[in-house]
């Protein structure tokens, strides 16, 4: 079938700035036109960030959380969850193993767990950097500016704090006791402190509209993020949202593809959440604008307990295997695994 290129896609092809109404029109493209959007996002990805895919090894070092987000399996009120914490030496050991497999970035992720003070996190970051030579991304949620500063001074390169949704009412309903304004304030602190910043949102949250998704993309542009994590919402049986409908694969891919058009230089992961709801999720995302994959390098015995959403993939696979599998997927797509640190292409490589 001959599909006519919609005017908005022509506009994107010419490299023109997309307006809110353009993003809305791309979000509501028909089935045949979607494939044109995906193709264009893939071309823009190639043109701006190349064919190489960056691997970031995630260590989920604590599943304790003081927050009670309605969508998340780690929420405070989930008493069915067996909680765990990795010690500093376990974290360093895990980081060392990941570095030996060739991973150049370690992401330290946890629930919001005040057990780890800013000073403790700073020490872990400094040791990881000194002992393994990796780049470090931190993702431990809302903290004080002082804590963020300590982490930056200890050598952390990046911070991942997803904005989750730009709808301020929805945000405070889904994240009791917190506000969208508080989240944005922190994202600006992180920028000011010199982190490469990652934000991002879930797709398919109950009450979310196309307008909200367009605003999510526009917010990413306004923040000029170095990374954006975009994944589907997946209902978890031990949360208040257990009976909600989850996010769709297609909509998630569309948001990802439009984000690539709007932010051509941003790192976009093929999220584990997407791969968990579709067996080809990673491959599809990598062909719709994504250029990052985040293999789980958490010691296998803890993985089952870090189910922020159900049916998370790679729960039993040894780290060596996951990294090999992911590298194969990348090669099968005719792409390569990047060997550098994968700092934001907005900065020059090699200035660790
Ligand atoms: N489905 C999908 N993603 C989720 N997250 C938390 N709960 C869910 C869920 N049920 C995401 C949030 C958070 C990250 C750690 O995981 O975006 O930032
Ligand atoms: Fe805690 Fe983050 Fe889950 Fe919210 S989304 S309950 S802050 S781990």
Compact description:
The protein is of the alpha/beta class and about 350 residues long. The chain has a single domain (about 35-330), classed as TIM Barrel.
The strand count comes to: 9
Question: Into which percentage range does the β-strand content fall?
Answer: 5-15%
Order of H and E elements: HHHEEHEHEHEHHEHEHHHEHHE
Instruction: Report on the biggest sheet.
Output: 6 strands, parallel
Bound molecules: 5'-deoxyadenosine, iron/sulfur cluster
Inertia-based shape: globular
**CATH architecture annotation name:** Alpha-Beta Barrel
How many separate domains?
1
Helix coverage percent of residues? 40-55%
- Across the major sheet, the strand order is 2-3-4-5-6-7
Structural class: alpha/beta
Distance between the termini: 50 Å
| Count of helix runs | 14
CATH class: Alpha Beta
CATH-assigned fold name: TIM Barrel
Low-confidence stretches: none
Structure description:
The chain has 352 residues and is of the alpha/beta class. It has one domain (36-331): TIM Barrel. It has 14 helices and nine strands. It has helices at residues 7-13, 20-27, 31-49, 88-100, 118-132, 145-153, 168-174, 180-192, 210-223, 249-262, 272-277, 281-286, 300-303, 319-332; strands at 52-55, 57-62, 105-110, 135-139, 158-160, 196-203, 227-232, 292-293, 336-337. A six-stranded parallel β-sheet has the order 2-3-4-5-6-7. It has a three-stranded parallel β-sheet with strand order 8-1-9, with helices on one face. Strand 2 (57-62), helix 4 and strand 3 (105-110) form a beta-alpha-beta unit. Helix 3 crosses helix 10 (249-262). The radius of gyration is 19 Å and the shape is globular. The mean pLDDT is 96.
């Amino acid at each position: 079938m001959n599909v006519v290129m919609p005017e908005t896609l022509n506009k994107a092809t010419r490299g023109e700035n997309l307006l809110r109404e353009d993003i809305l029109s791309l979000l509501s493209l028909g089935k045949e036109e979607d494939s044109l959007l995906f193709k264009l996002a893939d071309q823009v990805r190639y043109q701006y960030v190349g064919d190489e895919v960056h691997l970031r090894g995630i260590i989920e070092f604590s599943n304790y959380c003081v927050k009670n987000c309605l969508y998340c399996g780690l929420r405070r009120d989930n008493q069915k969850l067996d909680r765990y914490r990795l010690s500093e030496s376990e974290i360093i050991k895990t980081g060392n193993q990941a570095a030996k497999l060739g991973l150049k970035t370690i992401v330290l992720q946890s629930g919001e767990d005040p057990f780890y003070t800013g000073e403790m996190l700073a020490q872990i970051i400094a040791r990881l950097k000194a002992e393994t030579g990796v780049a470090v991304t931190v993702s431990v949620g809302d903290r004080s500016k002082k804590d963020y500063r300590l982490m930056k001074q200890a050598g952390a390169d990046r911070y991942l704090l997803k904005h989750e949704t730009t709808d301020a009412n929805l945000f405070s309903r889904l994240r009791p006791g917190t506000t969208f304004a508080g989240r944005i304030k922190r994202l600006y602190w992180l920028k000011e402190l010199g982190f490469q910043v990652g934000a991002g949102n879930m797709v398919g949250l109950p009450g979310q509209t196309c307008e909200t998704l367009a605003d999510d993309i526009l917010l990413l542009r306004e923040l000029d993020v170095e990374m954006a994590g975009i994944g589907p919402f997946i209902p978890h049986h031990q949360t208040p949202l257990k009976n909600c409908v989850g996010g769709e694969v297609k909509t998630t891919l569309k948001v990802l593809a439009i984000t690539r058009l709007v932010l051509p230089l941003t790192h976009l992961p093929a999220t584990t959440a997407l791969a968990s709801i579709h067996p080809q999720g990673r491959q599809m995302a990598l062909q719709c604008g994504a250029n990052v994959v985040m293999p789980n390098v958490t010691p296998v015995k803890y993985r089952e307990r870090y189910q922020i959403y159900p049916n998370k993939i790679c729960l039993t696979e040894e780290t060596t295997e996951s990294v090999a599998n992911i590298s194969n997927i990348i090669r099968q797509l005719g792409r390569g695994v990047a060997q550098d640190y994968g700092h934001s292409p907005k900065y020059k490589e090699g200035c660790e």
